[in-house]
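FW: tagging you since you asked about this chain on Friday. Here's the raw sequence from the shared folder, copied in full. Didn't touch anything.
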Amino acid sequence: MIPMSSPIDKATFDTDGFLVLRQFLPADEFDQLTTNLDRYICDVLPSLPDAYGYFQDKTRPETLSQLQKMDVDPYFKAYTSNRHWLDAAEAVLGETAKAQVPEWFNKPPGTEHPTPPHQDNFYWKFDPPQAISLWLALDAVDEENGCLR
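HL: got it, structure written out here
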């Protein structure tokens, strides 16, 4: 069952190429996710090689901009089987979905981190290239503070 307040509308997805799903996760699961993300950044990341976390300036922890290979942590490894995400992906793809390892992206205030237009499969190299990216905003976003476009 998909818990978000906005229903999956495959026809809109097929036409527009995206959907906005408000309140995708129940509040308790969102809180659990953000708590584990904070724990991962504070307790796990410092013990990992540099390729697991990217900083704009390594001497400034607040410039952390990306986390990869998060499946080294049991919580995030298990997160790849989270039914909320898989159900949403399967609803728009129209077929069984398999999750990849979660990644975290951040654009800290006062840092430069432009992302040029691209298609993710340039990096993923899936064959066939049937894939979907699901993004979850962890902070309130609007045009003034830099919403995703």
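FW: Confidence is low (pLDDT under 50) at residues 1-5.
HL: agreed, and Residues 26 and 139 are 15 Å apart (CA to CA).
FW: great, closing this out.
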